[in-house]
Design brief:
Elements: H1 9-20, H2 32-39, H3 43-46, H4 53-77, H5 85-99, H6 101-108, H7 122-132, H8 141-161, H9 171-196
Helix pairs in contact: 4-5, 4-6, 5-8, 5-9, 7-8, 8-9
Length: 198
Amino acid sequence: MNKTDTRDLRSELVAAAIGMLAEPQAVAVPSLRSIARACGVAPSAVYWHFPSEADLRSAVLDTEYASLVEAVESALDATAEVDDHLVVAGDAYIAWGMAHPGAYQLLFESSDALPETRAAHGPRLQARIVELARLVDPDAPFASALLLWSVWHGVVSLRLHKNEWDWGMTAQEANRRLIHALVTNRIKAANTDSRTAP
């Protein structure tokens, strides 16, 4: 920039980038070329199976979402009646996310739609979590299930992206504290309601 140029291009560049960040950013599947290279085939061979990169992306999302559903359902199915099913579901969700960081980002940190048909048992798992969330709030189990998911997601996402931080507890400990706090709060609220009822 010469002395007579009064334009602050640096500030303009920062402002333009911030403007672009007003919209969610894409989380990309590895390129067709890099996937073909990993399989030892020419990029053109990929198109025999996937007409476009979008088709490949959808197949990846389908497979990984099914894997997540299976992990959570298997954990729930293997749990004894006396165990806290919400804790088990949260632990399984968190463990899967931490073990599949790139897939987790694709599923839950991108703007791609996550249709109910993505995994055959997806809707069934969602219904199970909503039913379990009745322990947190029997009057609004769906809202409570979304709250639980929001926190589980936060635990996974922050630990994936800020793994240098000392969180002071394991992800599983965080899950237990969360659920204990929610259930305890619900019990306190119920007790207060019963004492104030006419």
